[in-house]
Design goal:
By secondary structure, the chain is mainly beta. It has a 28-stranded antiparallel β-sheet that branches. It is globular, with a radius of gyration of 31 Å. The protein starts with a helix and ends with a strand.
């Protein structure tokens, strides 16, 4: 009996050991759009001859697998096939959590095969300053999945945040611009195939690759092993940003020898159908190679760039638009020898080289390391001139109604007013708004007799095209370790290092028929008696006895460097038990920046060349996330964040082109935010409802412009800018019948200034502050993004791979970017004195007081616009022919062809200044605002072949 018992125990032990040497794989398969569970997905481990099918909740599991590495394949109709390499341990079931499949055609998110309907660059009209371009429409978040794409036509920013608050990672490295914080989308614009694999976290969520700020995180996985296997070729035709695009891509998938590689090439060419001078001459390339060493080590090398030449549009006044005949006038363009030419052209080529290393230290521990280098050129051309008035067609002195800026009620006589009107009628007859390039060539034949001893008969250009450069050398290093612990606990910690050196300079691009440019400061030449004072490069003058002679390709004007060092250590802990989840994260870092002047400015010989004061900042962040899942259908999430970040270089110096002066009152920015989200996930309705509240304190801003009231180039530096953002978001999807779904999104927010910022004004000819004041905009609204946006749509996914959709959008409460000077006490001083003078009288005149108050309110009023409706539609189809897939998609926007929708703009920084007849004091007034308008009906047609 004892022997039988002993044998039984030994057999049980052997069986237990045998079982312990077996592992397994499990997970849940979901769609990338909305993370919807997918049933009936075939999951196969071909090497073992095993096949499983996901249940109604998308779950699958393989048990009792021998230890080793296996290729797990996922296939289902309407979705792209996926293959994962999974390592199974001896006593552990590998939980893949969510396995994400990419739709082969769009679903309710409105994400067409190529997310190219809005691509962004870093200029005022279409920019990296936008937080969420449409390529993020594949978010797991229901609201962002709809809103980030469908609201992009209005430059919509989620929760009203600038793009510096949305962290954008490429292969685990944060790539937000080091100097501005803006999103880096233009660095890989046109590489849609290479960058389509994205992991998105919205709002205050945390991630395994970083903590993030208040605007969410996105990590683009652009390594060879993540690239879609096979060939893909696409050709597109459109009329919004360019006419033609072609793209070819290939991904090998992971080969049996552990290698994988991927390449992608594209080009975009032509202009749009509305704005003169807008065009693309762009190419993009991507290459990545990756090697798996054994089962535990991966090394990947990636190289990409998007060299682009692009013509830009500039906003203009409604008077100019009316004279031109439509709302698409572009003051940057004119005719040269009968051919249209744009003076404002962005020319960029900034390659990125990246190296990624992954080490699976154990079944529960992984180390990721990444390093990158960004380099190249980033230039933006502009017309410049030495003598004479601004030659651009919408310069206010050329506008028929320009005299009306000098009109002051109660001061301007009726006779003068009548003269202004007659002048306007005559001016309208001759205005054409074009740059006169042929005239520039003619005037550049001038031989400067004062320089004949030096230059002989060479022609001195009075007009030329310059190219302003911001050329970055940006190095990054990021390392993190992830460890999965027992009881659904996980900790991730990492460290980041960034070193950036950026060259700022201007370069002579086109002398427009002349032979050279005489490099002096024209404003200093006008105002200063000393010849040394108006030298842009004083050391050159001292060594040669004359100003720099600049020819095409030479530097001129200014040359300085920005130096930036950032380091950070961070950690993220998460735990889940039952329906409850907890996340805690924190970071601490150090930031240093300074200016290095490469040339000695004649106006500031002791404060322009060499290093400025080094600006040092402690940065930190703390986040808390709480969640509770009541059931598979109902859950709550709450998040909170507090952080301090360094100001950006572009706001840290008053006039970096000329000297080392730091912005007065500059401080680290402080942010506090909370949000609460309810998620509903039922077969017949899916919804996400969120509320949020955020405060941003101690921001700074520097605006440089020509001040007509001082007849000099001036710098307007603000500090102590505080903002408050709060609002609600709703995303909704309701399946109705036979593949038709009702989808919708609502964003309502209130984004306001909560402080009256301090400002100082300096002029470039004087090394002192000429004015201190307050900007009285407390309670006014943060500009640009619509604070009310509503979408209602119908999406259809039918049999035989048809898909279609129609969307109605509504936008309201857009606010024009403000001229801060309009809101200062200085600007309204005349009217204030008039009120005080009247109140000192024994019997104040109420009409005079009311009139003066009305003038102050009119001067300070913030322009609001909105109440706009837009209609768009899309349709597409995929055909499967053996192993080939042929597809097409067509989207049409602004079907109503409403060409009067303002998408943004700004108040001119110019101020009119008229001397009052009764007191002799100056009366300040507004100049007309400038606007951008939505294009009329536009389309994007894409045809693609994949195999």
């Amino acid at each position: 009996m004892k022997l039988k018992a002993l044998l039984f125990l030994m057999l049980a032990a052997v069986s237990f050991v045998s079982y312990a040497q077996q592992g397994g794989v499990r997970g849940t398969v979901v769609s990338r759009n909305g993370r919807v569970a997918l049933s009936n997905v075939e999951v196969k481990i071909e090497s073992l001859g095993l096949t499983a099918t996901t249940d109604n909740d998308g779950r699958f599991q393989f048990e009792s697998l021998p230890a080793g590495s296996y290729r797990v394949q996922f296939t289902t109709p309407d979705f792209e096939p996926l293959e994962l390499l999974v390592r199974v341990g001896t006593d552990h079931v590998q939980d893949l959590k969510q396995v994400i499949l990419v739709p082969g055609n769009p679903s309710y998110g409105g994400f067409l095969d190529d997310a190219v309907f809005a691509e962004f660059d870093s200029d005022s009209s279409s920019s990296d300053s936008q937080a969420l371009p449409s390529s993020l429409s594949a978010s797991k978040d229901l609201f962002n999945n709809i809103a980030s794409y469908r609201f992009s036509e209005m430059r919509f920013n989620v929760r009203g945040y600038d793009s510096q608050f949305s962290d954008i990672y490429l292969n685990g490295i944060r790539f937000n611009d080091a100097l501005t914080g803006y999103g880096p989308w233009s660095l890989w614009s046109g590489l849609n195939d290479a960058t389509r694999n994205q992991e998105n976290h919205t709002g205050l969520e945390m991630a395994d690759f970083g903590i993030g700020g208040i605007g969410g995180l996105t990590n683009i996985n652009a390594r060879a092993s993540q690239f879609r296997k096979g060939f893909r070729v696409s050709v597109s035709n459109a009329n919004q940003m360019y006419r033609f695009r072609a793209m070819i891509s290939y991904g090998s998938g992971q080969l049996d020898n552990g290698w994988s590689y991927a390449i992608s090439l594209s080009t975009r060419q032509g202009g749009n159908g509305y704005v003169d001078g807008i065009y693309y001459n762009s190419y993009a390339y991507f290459a990545s190679v990756e090697k798996l060493f054994g089962d535990n080590h991966r090394l990947a090398l990636t190289f990409l760039a998007s060299p682009t030449e692009r013509g830009a549009q500039q906003a203009s006044t409604d008077e100019a638009y009316a004279l031109f005949g439509n709302n698409y006038y572009n003051p940057n363009v004119g005719y040269q020898a009968g051919k249209l030419r744009n003076s404002r052209v962005r020319n960029t080529h900034e390659p990125i080289a990246m190296l990624n290393y992954t080490w699976d230290i154990s079944e529960n521990t992984r180390l990721n390391a990444a390093t990158s280098l960004r380099f190249g050129k980033n230039g933006y051309s502009a017309l410049t001139w030495n003598g004479g008035s601004d030659p651009r067609g919408d310069y206010y002195r050329y506008m028929p109604l320009s005299d009306m800026t000098q009109y002051v009620p109660g001061t301007t006589t009726d006779q003068t007013y009548y003269y202004y009107l007659q002048s306007a009628v005559q001016g309208a007859r001759v205005w054409d708004g074009m740059l006169k390039f042929d005239d520039f060539y003619h005037m550049n034949q001038y031989v400067d007799t004062e320089l004949t001893d030096l230059m002989g008969d060479s022609r001195r250009s009075n007009y030329m095209i310059e190219e302003r450069h911001t050329d970055q050398l940006d190095y990054n290093l990021a390392v993190n370790v992830q460890h999965n612990m027992r009881n659904n606990m996980k900790i991730v910690g990492g460290a980041n290092l960034r070193v950036n050196r950026t060259n700022y300079y201007s370069q002579v691009k086109d002398l427009l028929g002349g032979d050279y440019w005489y490099d002096i400061d024209k404003f200093a030449e006008r105002d200063m008696a000393s010849e040394t004072a108006y030298q842009n490069d004083l050391d050159y003058y001292w060594s040669t006895g004359h100003a720099r002679i600049a020819r095409e390709g030479d530097m001129y004007g200014y040359y300085y460097r920005a130096h930036l060092l950032e380091s950070e250590a961070w950690a993220n802990y998460s735990w889940a038990v039952g329906g409850f989840s907890l996340g805690v994260a924190g970071s601490v870092g150090y930031s240093q920046m300074y200016r290095e002047g490469m040339w000695r400015k004649g106006l500031f010989p002791d404060n322009s060349k060499g290093d400025s004061k080094k600006l040092d900042y402690l940065t930190y962040e703390g986040k808390l996330s709480l969640g509770y899942k009541f059931s598979g259908a109902h859950s709550l999430e709450a998040n909170a964040v507090i952080l301090q970040q360094a100001p950006k270089f572009n706001t840290a110096f008053v006039s970096p082109r000329t000297r080392n002066n730091v912005t007065p009152g500059l401080k680290a920015e402080k942010v506090f935010g909370v949000d609460l989200t309810y998620n509903l996930n039922l077969p017949y309705i899916k919804a996400r409802l969120s509320g949020y509240y955020t405060t941003i304190a101690d921001q700074a801003k520097v605006i440089s412009f020509y001040d007509d009231t001082r007849s000099s180039f001036t710098n307007f530096a603000m500090s102590g800018i505080d903002k408050r953002h709060y609002g609600v978001e709703l995303g909704l999807s309701i399946p109705v019948w036979n593949g038709i779904s009702v989808v919708g999104a609502v964003s309502w927010g209130d984004y306001t200034y909560t402080s009256n910022a301090d400002f100082v004004q300096t002029v470039d000819n004087v090394d002192r502050i000429v004015l201190r004041d307050k900007v009285n905009w407390k309670g006014m609204h943060v500009e640009s993004s619509p604070q009310t946006a509503i979408n209602v749509g119908l999406d259809y996914r039918g049999a035989r791979n048809w898909f279609a959709g129609v969307n109605l959008n509504y936008y309201d409460r857009l606010y024009l970017s403000m001229n801060p000077f309009y809101r200062t006490n200085t600007a309204s001083e005349y009217f204030t004195n008039l009120i005080l003078s009247e109140l000192s009288m024994p019997e104040p005149n109420k009409a005079t007081i009311d009139g003066a108050m009305s003038s102050i309110n009119e001067l300070r009023a913030q322009e609001e616009f909105g109440g706009y409706f837009t209609l768009s539609a899309n349709v597409g189809k995929n055909w499967y022919i053996g192993r080939y897939m042929l597809g097409m998609s067509l989207e049409v926007k602004n079907i109503l062809n409403d060409q009067d929708i303002r998408t943004g703009g700004y108040e001119q920084m110019r101020m009119s200044k008229v001397r009052a007849a009764n007191t002799g004091d100056y009366v300040f007034g507004r100049f007309p605002s400038k606007y951008f308008y939505m294009l009329g009906t536009t389309y994007f047609l894409n045809v693609y072949l994949r195999f």
